[in-house]
Amino acid sequence: MIRAYRTDGTAEIIGPDSVKDRISPDIVWIDLVSPSVEEEHAVERVTGIPLPTREELKDIEPSSRLYVENDAVYMTASLIYKADTPLPQLTDIAFILHDNRLITIRYAEPKSFALFSASLLRSSDHCKSGAALLSSLLETVADRTAEILESLASRLDALSVAVFVDRKTAKRRPPRFLEDKLIDIAAHHQLVSKVRDSLVSLSRLVTFLSAQPAIRSDSLATELCAVVARDIQSLGEHAAFVGNNITFMLDAALGLINVEQNSIIKIFSIASVVFLPPTLVASIYGMNFRILPELEWSYGYPMALAGMLLSAVIPFLFFRWKGWL
């Protein structure tokens, strides 16, 4: 699908058959969404520049993601999408500046693109040039990344409240509660890892873009690029902070699981120690020796029971006095 945005912020969907030998001068942004081969060839014909294929977008070499060819600036960045789902992903998107026009090639629908497209209808001030349009789009991407990190921080706060509770509340938690929370922590870690990868990719792109003549000659684009660069740096620091919190949550959850397991083992150990003396008394009087004086006692049986009970109570009281129970 080909979306063409004009300088007034309006957009239309055009097909490969409707693309003529030249493109209208008021079209400042061509957005190719999961384009077919015919659509790619049509855009290449009217723009006069080659477009990177989907396989080429996946190349991680800097020389393949950031370069200038035939007076066109080619840039590829990895943006996060499906951030609100259990499986966030990264998608590679190509940004091309050519002839004062922006061309984007993408095979996913990041929310930042939808937000930016909607904003163009309200204000078309940034549609005067492809450089300003790209800078504004990157600003929206940075804002969307900030929203993802803020949402993630809120979920971490809620998770922290659920994990770190008083002992009385912890006893009422369902079985395997902490084990289930480990899955949530892993999901949060995956999301923040995707965000950090995206920020690194964006940082490289903005640094490369800021040095291009098309940006330096446009005061608005230069200012926006500087703002986006500062935002990306701040977001990177915030993502690192959130990542450290996730690591702490993981260590704390594992520590609490170990504490609960040790408490269970401690109960079994104390029970073994408490019942060991009565077992010893019962074993002594269960021996089949011919001469066993206590067998002739009238109160031998109740005395043996009392001895077993006393030998169990004394260790129990000792453990309570030590604070082990």
Number of helices: 10
Helix content bin: 55-70%
As a percent range, the share of strand residues is 5-15%
Overall 3D shape: rod-shaped
Mean of the pLDDT scores? 81
CATH class categorisation of the largest domain: Alpha Beta
The CATH topology annotation of the largest domain reads as Beta Polymerase, domain 2
* Count of individual beta strands: 7
Instruction: Tell me the strand order in the biggest sheet.
Output: 2-1-3-7-6-5-4
The CATH architecture name of the largest domain reads 2-Layer Sandwich
Output the CATH homologous superfamily of the largest domain.
CorA soluble domain-like
| Total domain modules | 2
Structural class: alpha+beta
C-alpha end-to-end distance: 69 Å
| Order of secondary-structure elements | EEEHHHEEEEHHHHHHH
Are there runs of 5+ residues with pLDDT below 50, and where? none
Major β-sheet, in short?
7 strands, mixed
What's the gyration radius in Å?
Answer: 34 Å
Q: Mind explaining what this structure looks like?
A:
The structure is a single chain. The chain is an alpha+beta fold. The chain folds into 2 domains: 2-260, CorA soluble domain-like (Beta Polymerase, domain 2); 261-322, Magnesium transport protein CorA, transmembrane region (Methane Monooxygenase Hydroxylase, Chain G, domain 1), CATH 1.20.58.340. It has 10 helices and 7 strands. Strands 2-1-3-7-6-5-4 form a 7-stranded mixed beta sheet, sandwiched between helices.
In short:
With 325 residues, the chain is α+β, with helices and mostly antiparallel strands. It has ten helices and seven strands.
